[in-house]
Design brief:
It is elongated and about 85 Å long. The chain is an alpha+beta fold and 413 residues long. A hairpin with a 2-residue loop joins strand 13 and strand 14. Helix 2 runs parallel beside helix 3, helix 6 crosses helix 7 and helix 6 packs across helix 9. Strands 9, 12, 15, 16, 17, 18 and 19 form a seven-stranded mixed β-sheet that branches. A four-stranded antiparallel β-sheet has the order 1-8-6-3, with helices on one face. A four-stranded antiparallel β-sheet has the order 5-4-2-7, with no helix packed on it. The chain folds into three domains: 103 residues, OB fold (Dihydrolipoamide Acetyltransferase, E2P); 44 residues, Irregular (Dihydrolipoamide Transferase); 201 residues, 2-Layer Sandwich (Chloramphenicol Acetyltransferase), CATH 3.30.559.
Length: 413
């Protein structure tokens, strides 16, 4: 017997531990070289772990286990021959496919065995899909997977939720409850949720964080989008959204005020001559903040396309570690959930984060008259060790002016 040990590889400099979130192949299945056998959930992303040899897979770790880098995950018995029809390429001759120890007639069930092995993913939800199904109380057996090998994707789970909810609601509302449940359910926190919790506590404990507020009149921004949206979409194939406008406004001011774009490194301050804006994206497994690089040099449609790309990858759990690295400033938009005002927490090691909020039609005093305007509260949380109070206020005022007179933003004034 020849055994190859599969150990957790080195994933990144800052990652010392991963969670085995899901097996993609069954215990005892035959696996081909480089075929994904399981998924790891790290602090930042979900990663597939490919087989390092071909042979029979033998589980060592279990789903949900926390594994340090270098820990044993599984073993592969390379002495086990590939079942007929399961080889990656038809290189073997007919004579090589016939076992000397077993008559050929015994190999007839092989195609069935191969089908079961290769379709282990069938009916199994991805981590994101699994969370959605669990929250909605829908069994994976009720959902048809459209992903690779029949795997249930996030979109499959979302569709299943929509089609299942009306029937479920009708059943629940058909009569009074027989009793009141007081059962408790304990679930292990995902690695991403544990990492988020740790970093939020760290930011609160290790920074001198304060928040300053202002409000912005979005009348001109909304008029600009309405006037040019059709032309913008026709030329670039994507809508002009608020995020690119806010990102560009922040980037312009950050280049003027490098202290807000800096970070502490021991007794030193690191200043950046570029602006990488981390965009907070809500996913089924938690909040991620992948950065859009060099926002100061990008055009509006390029920012929109990059945000759309990152958001799509984030919600499907396909962000790479490289795409999660960096960031000199963060923008989070609680307004999409209806938040009126909040105090966002700094994304360490950055020194500031801008919080956008919901747009409200409010009466405002304009040149001695009361007018109804689309208003948004802005919140800037900042590390007072790096940024003075006057600097934070000035930053918000400058951003406010650019957004209220967007032509100055377009012209870089």
């Amino acid at each position: 017997m020849s055994i190859v040990e599969m150990k957790v590889p080195t994933i990144g400099e800052s990652i010392t531990e991963v969670t085995l979130s899901q097996w993609l192949k069954g215990n005892g299945d035959y696996v081909n070289l480089d075929e994904p056998i399981c998924e790891f959930e790290s602090d930042k992303a979900t990663l597939e772990f490919p087989a390092e040899a071909a042979g029979k897979l033998i589980y060592v770790a279990e789903e949900g286990d926390d594994l340090e880098i270098g820990a044993l995950v599984a073993k592969i018995d390379t002495s086990v021959a590939s079942p007929a029809g399961n080889a990656p390429a038809p290189a073997a001759t007919p004579e090589e496919n016939v076992s000397e120890e077993k008559p050929q007639t015994q190999a007839t069930p092989t195609p069935v065995q191969q089908t079961e092995s290769s379709s282990y993913a069938k009916g199994h939800p991805s981590p994101a899909a699994g969370k959605i199904l669990a929250e909605k109380g829908i069994s994976a057996s009720e959902v048809k997977g459209t992903g690779k090998d029949g795997r249930i994707t996030k979109s499959d789970a979302m569709s299943a939720t929509k089609s299942s909810t009306p029937v479920e609601s009708k059943t629940l509302s058909s009569g009074p409850r027989a009793n009141f449940s007081r059962e408790l359910r304990t679930e292990k926190m995902s690695r991403m949720r544990r990492t988020i919790a740790s970093r939020l506590v760290s930011a609160k404990n290790n920074t001198a964080m304060l928040t300053t507020f202002n409000e912005v009149d979005l009348t001109e921004i909304m008029a600009l989008r309405k006037r040019y949206q059709e032309q913008f979409v026709e030329k670039y194939g994507i809508k002009l959204g608020f995020m690119s406008l806010f990102s560009k406004a922040c980037a312009q001011v950050l280049m003027e005020m490098p202290a807000v774009n800096s970070q502490i490194d021991g007794n030193n301050l690191i200043y950046h001559d570029y602006v990488d804006i981390s965009i907070a994206i809500s996913t089924p497994t938690g909040l991620v903040v992948p950065p859009v690089h060099n926002v100061e040099s990008l055009q509006f449609h390029e920012i929109e396309m990059k945000i759309k790309e990152l958001a799509g990858k984030a919600r499907e759990g396909k962000l790479t570690l490289e795409e999660m690295k960096g960031g000199t400033f963060t923008i989070t938009n609680g307004g999409v959930f209806g938040s009126m005002m909040s105090t966002p927490i700094i994304n360490e090691p950055q020194s500031a984060i801008l919080g956008m909020h919901t747009i409200q039609q409010r009466p405002m005093a304009i040149d001695g008259e009361v007018k109804i305007r689309p208003m948004m509260y802005l919140a800037l949380s900042y590390d007072h060790r790096v940024i003075d109070g006057s600097t934070s206020v000035t930053f918000l005022v400058k951003v406010k002016k650019l957004l209220e007179d967007p032509m100055t933003l377009m012209m870089g004034l």
